[in-house]
Specification:
Blueprint lengths: L17 E4 L4 H12 L4 E4 L15 H5 L4 E4 L10 H14 L4 E7 L3 H11 L4 E7 L12 H6 L1 E4 L5 E2 L4 H13 L6 E5 L5 E2 H12 L4 E4 L2 H10 L11 H4 L9 H6 L6 H10 L6
Parallel strand pairs: 1-2, 1-3, 3-4, 4-5, 5-8, 6-10
Antiparallel strand pairs: 7-9
């Protein structure tokens, strides 16, 4: 089942112009860095990019796709949001028409709405790869839960549910392989970390890494919706937690091993290295 750790590039990969949508985000930034380390040209697809790319402004897509032959497709705010599948389908058709046949989509494990977006991308006729990730370990230091960790309290509507947190560097390594190796065309890979952990365990690992006391506080879905409203964030983010609560992802998957020939990175290693950067210092 396992492939060799160093997958060969296709003959065309050395000349590939890759559009990385969300190239300043958690996975996109890493994908762009890893491609550049291989000497491959990269274009960042973002509203601040040159040319700019905006999911909600289809008029920007053509310029961003000019001269591109492969695309890493990430969608903000989430593939589960209304209208995402339609936008993914329209963009994928535009990409193929512009000459970008290789499309690698970042999706989510166990998300039916995300799977509709996957099918829309496949229908474009692209040479596709789908990468379904578990929850990102980096959610705790690069945005979403950063302030909670700094405050010492993680309040979420997840009860005693467990998740197989995946490191975004593992995701990026898989994506780069998919962008540069024909063996990944037409494949769907599900990625997770090496163990299941609950959010109380997350708090314990973060406490150990930081030397501070960080606690997990379970709250109701409605309470969490109120927090999102107060902070000007879409309430639909609360619905994503139902994917954890029903246990659909409470098992390990082995896409990292299958593509890269190595074990995925553990949450404890992530927490220790992130803490060393000082990101959680108060």
């Amino acid at each position: 089942m396992t492939q060799t750790p160093q997958t060969p590039q296709t003959p065309q990969a050395s000349q590939a112009q890759t559009l990385v949508i969300g190239g300043n985000g958690k996975t996109g930034r890493r994908v762009a860095q890893k491609l550049r380390l291989r000497g491959l040209p990269v274009r960042i697809g973002s509203r601040t990019g040159a040319p700019a790319f905006d999911w909600n402004a289809p008029g920007t897509w053509g310029s961003a796709l000019e001269g591109v032959d492969r695309v890493y497709v990430t969608y903000y705010p989430d593939l589960g949001f209304p209208g995402a599948a339609e936008q993914i389908g329209a963009f994928s058709e535009a990409a193929v028409a512009a000459g970008a046949r290789r499309l690698v989509l970042l999706s989510g494990r166990g998300e039916e709405a995300a799977q509709r977006a996957e099918e829309a991308l496949k229908a474009s006729g692209a040479d596709w790869t789908v990468v379904r990730g578990s929850w990102f370990a980096q959610n705790f230091d690069e945005g979403f839960f950063l302030d909670s960790v700094r405050a010492g309290e993680i309040a979420l509507p997840t009860a005693d549910a467990v998740e197989a947190f995946v490191d975004t560097d593992d995701i990026a390594d898989v994506v780069v392989a998919a962008l540069t190796d024909d063996r990944h065309i037409g494949r769907t890979y599900e990625l997770s970390g090496p163990r299941l952990i609950g959010f109380a365990d997350v708090a314990a690992e973060l406490s150990k890494a930081t030397g501070r006391t960080i606690t997990y506080v379970p709250v109701s879905n409605e309470e969490y919706r109120g927090v999102l409203r107060e902070n000007g964030l879409p309430e639909e983010f609360a619905d994503l937690f139902t994917l954890i609560l029903d246990g659909r992802n409470a098992h390990l998957v082995h896409g990292v091993e299958e593509v890269l020939g190595r074990e995925p990175r553990d949450f404890a290693d992530y927490a220790r290295e992130a803490a060393a950067t000082g990101v959680w210092d108060v």
